[in-house]
Amino acid sequence: MLKAQRGHAESVTGTTQTLTATETRSAGRSRLTGSAAAALSLFLIGTSAPVASTIRDIPVVTGQATRYLIASAVLIAAMIISRRLPRIRPTRRDLLDLGLLGLFGIAGFNLFLVAASYQVAPALVGTVLAATPVLLAVVAPLLVRCRPSAQVLVGAVIVTVGTGITTGAGAASPTGILLCLGALGCELAFTLLAVRLIRRFGTFAATTGAAVSGAIVLTTGALIVDGPAAFVAVPQASQELLALLFLALAVSIGANAAWYVALPRLGAARSGLFYAFSPVGALAASLVLGAELPGPFGFVGLALVAAGLLVGVWQRRRPGAA
């Protein structure tokens, strides 16, 4: 009987170890998927500023509105064709979060970013936005009443320093710095407001809702600021229209969807580390558009970015996990 009990205990222990190993491998795959999605998202977002700078014949607000109208139409069509309509009826809280996401996370961020680029050097904008990983590493846990992870915070600081070195600094003005800080606040809102919506509706529905909300806010603003005639002129600007299509499909849809894939798998704090890929995307897009390579300090910054990502995302395997 003792042998039977011992055998049963060993069987249970073996099963537990097998489950632990399986769970560890599954968590590792999920973390890898989230990391790849976050890197892709921020890389694509980084390309948006150089590409948007080629749009000169379309008013700023109208251009952003057109971009999100295209993205919304594509996402809604895909949702209907794939029959992935949300089954949960949105509450007032959901609609409020979506409205705030469109107002601040999408419309506010893009308009602050464009306005800041007229006031300060583009490098300074990138340097201010480089603070995003540190702020997310601190703010995201506090919102759910948790202590910020020291490991993620250290990684975020390294990433921020590396990103700042990569982008450099530039000429500044008080107005420009305030606009940069406005873009930074809106960027935080884009992530923090989305976490609950993704949990309730899923990645696809949350991405679609964010795009539609942003389109409504930006279209309203464009009609007030630029007038209906500005939309009529959009199809006539062929080169600018190609840039808008890239921004709509690759950034507004691709980058946002990838970001919303990453958030549930990594959490807001760890996902924020991948903001370091934004200057990499900007560099790649600038090279395609004919810009020069960065100096030696730029590559030193990219090395620091890689080190910070390893520090912040790496998780040691638990004892007993296979």
3D structure, described in words:
With 322 residues, the protein is mainly α. It has one domain. It has twelve helices and no strands. It has helices at residues 2-52, 60-81, 92-119, 122-129, 132-143, 150-167, 174-201, 203-225, 229-233, 238-272, 277-288, 296-313. α5 (132-143) packs across α10 (238-272). The longest helix has 51 residues, at 2-52. It is globular and about 55 Å long. Residues 316-322 have low confidence and may be disordered.
Topology:
Elements: H1 2-52, H2 60-81, H3 92-119, H4 122-129, H5 132-143, H6 150-167, H7 174-201, H8 203-225, H9 229-233, H10 238-272, H11 277-288, H12 296-313
Helix pairs in contact: 1-10, 1-11, 2-8, 2-10, 3-7, 3-8, 4-6, 4-7, 5-6, 5-7, 5-10, 6-12, 7-8, 7-10, 8-10
Give the gist of this structure.
By secondary structure, this protein is mostly helical. It has helices at 2-52, 60-81, 92-119, 122-129, 132-143, 150-167, 174-201, 203-225, 229-233, 238-272, 277-288, 296-313. The two termini are 31 Å apart.
